[in-house]
């Protein structure tokens, strides 16, 4: 029995095969276009391309803040977890070294003759008195910081700033959170393309018009992208069907994705270092400086009242006020020299990853969808249309190469 197929039959059977390849390739390309290139390549603003997510990272960062971090994490709550005593213990040794240096610099600048005249024993008494007051000063500063934390630390400014300056980080967040969904989109393109190619093959066998293959390719490119996205996010609520529970792939993995997402936020975004940076250099830094000035001035007043009641008179009022101002400024500017010693403690105390994970797992499916989809939902049509146009182009190529 001869199973040899004639060229016409082989050409006909190639339609669903090519359709499957088109489905896979358009889905693969659509995914790549979401994330790459990170920077715009081409001639702005029209001729070229930049990955959808890197290109809109500012808007996407704002969405992430509003939908997730802004609702699930409160800086007021996080600040309340900082214990002044534990914080002091974590950085006390380094803080004492910094304060000694600040005292020396301030006194040499503001009261050089008086400081030079003091014997070593007297200077050591000054250091000891100031160092003994550190726990008291830190406790008061931490208390005031808690009450003013929303003016000092802006979560939105922190998150948006970091994601805008690091587009690869926002890519990492989405790629990691959707690590199992994106490969599915690629593979499903092949099988959906194969399935949708069969009607095109049957229609072409009975009605071989030139426009059938380009139209079939367009529909394959469009439907494979559209259907893959739908399967990931729809249905939102589980539906029972023939004993199976059907739900959007991403939503079904809510428990797992919450852990992955929270870990990235904790380790790459909401770190103690980043929070310190935004407090020292962000829009609320002046509020922090005012707080430091208040408590440094208060500490100096306490020391002068106990140690040398006539110190201010001896130094002179101008130098005395300058001394307090310079001391506050130096402690603020040198904060990056002692605060990092408390990072290990603050990271454990804030416990951002575990809390965020738990709260994300408690979201409804509709709310959880907001973790990933809204960031690029407005531009999904670009991916779908691109897939459709590529599919149509493949249809023309098939028409020319196979059937011409």
Average the pLDDT over all residues and give the rounded result: 82
The coarse overall form would be elongated
Distance between the termini: 31 Å
Number of separate helices? 24
- Percent strand equals under 5%
Oligomeric status: single chain
Give, in order, the helices and strands. Answer: HEEHHHHHHHHHHHEEHHHHHHHHHHHH
**Widest sheet: strand ordering:** 1-2
Give a description of the structure.
The chain has helices spanning about 5-35, 50-55, 55-70, 75-80, 85-110, 110-115, 120-130, 135-150, 155-165, 165-175, 180-205, 210-235, 250, 255-270, 270-280, 285-305, 310-315, 315-335, 335-340, 345-350, 350-360, 365-370, 375, 380-400; strands at about 40-45, 45-50, 240, 245. The model has no long low-confidence stretch (mean pLDDT about 80). It has 24 helices and four strands. Helix content is about 80%, strand content about 5%. The longest helix is centred in the N-terminal third of the chain and has 29 residues, at about 5-35. The two termini are about 30 Å apart. The protein is mostly helical. Helix 8 (about 135-150) packs antiparallel against helix 16 and helix 14 runs antiparallel to helix 21. The strands form two sheets. Strands 1-2 form a two-stranded antiparallel ribbon. Strands 3-4 form a two-stranded antiparallel ribbon.
